[in-house]
């Protein structure tokens, strides 16, 4: 398992720590073994974070909202006529246990209401009294877990067209020219340049028949 989550690392039976840095500074085995062995390593950057010697600082100053969306009396499904204020121009996280009403509030009520008002759609929005502040919003986009392209290999770079420019850039490198590589050599979808173990997918899917695939 390749993982950066602290609790997962602490719970692992065996840890293999690579480094000591990234890119050209990496590629070495820094430490291996149980958690105690990793924590005792002086060369492990992972160890320094696990022991609290290093940390990722939380910004002292946060961006300030530029307006608010206010949902009044949200009552769809299990929502109990709640009033909710959502700040604009900042990142907002809606949290809660499974089934607590997060998707109902954000998708069924807010998203569908904005679709109806901004794009004249005819979606059935979840029950609520009113949403204030919509005049401060000019568009709404929903990003879910559905594939963003025609193949499982699609990613934000291929979807936006950025990857085309990247492939062309790779093809212009001295090594590529020397080997006669064209931009197509760097495609996930064509044999040759892609990894033939995973066929450009980034992972290998193993069918387990009566069990979930891994």
TrEMBL record:
GO terms for biological process: DNA repair. SUPFAM superfamilies: P-loop containing nucleoside triphosphate hydrolases (SSF52540). The lineage of its organism: unclassified sequences, metagenomes, ecological metagenomes. One of its GO terms (molecular function) is nuclease activity. It comes from marine sediment metagenome. The keyword Metal-binding does not apply. PANTHER family: UVRABC SYSTEM PROTEIN A (PTHR43152). Keywords: ATP-binding, Cytoplasm, DNA damage, DNA excision, DNA repair, DNA-binding, Excision nuclease, Nucleotide-binding, Repeat. Transmembrane segments: none annotated. The keyword Signal does not apply. GO terms for cellular component: cytoplasm. This is UvrA interaction domain-containing protein.
């Amino acid at each position: 398992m390749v993982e950066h989550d602290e609790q997962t690392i602490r719970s692992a039976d065996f840890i293999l720590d690579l480094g000591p840095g990234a890119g050209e500074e990496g590629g070495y085995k820094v430490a291996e073994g149980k958690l105690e062995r990793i924590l005792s390593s002086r060369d492990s950057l992972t160890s320094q974070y696990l022991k609290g010697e290093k940390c990722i600082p939380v910004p002292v100053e946060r961006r300030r909202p530029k307006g608010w969306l206010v949902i009044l009396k949200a009552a769809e499904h299990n929502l109990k006529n709640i009033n909710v204020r959502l700040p604009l121009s900042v990142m907002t996280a809606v949290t809660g246990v499974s089934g607590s009403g997060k998707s109902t509030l954000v998708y069924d009520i807010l998203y569908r209401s904005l679709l109806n008002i901004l794009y004249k759609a005819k979606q059935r929005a979840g029950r609520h009294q009113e949403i204030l502040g919509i005049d401060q919003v000019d568009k709404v986009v929903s990003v879910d877990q559905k594939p963003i392209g025609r193949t499982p290999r699609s990613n934000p770079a291929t979807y936006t067209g950025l990857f085309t420019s990247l492939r062309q850039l790779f093809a212009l490198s001295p090594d590529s020219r020397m080997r006669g590589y064209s931009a197509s050599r760097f495609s996930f979808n064509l044999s040759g340049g892609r990894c033939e173990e995973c066929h450009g997918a980034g992972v290998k899917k193993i069918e387990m028949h009566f069990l979930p695939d891994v």
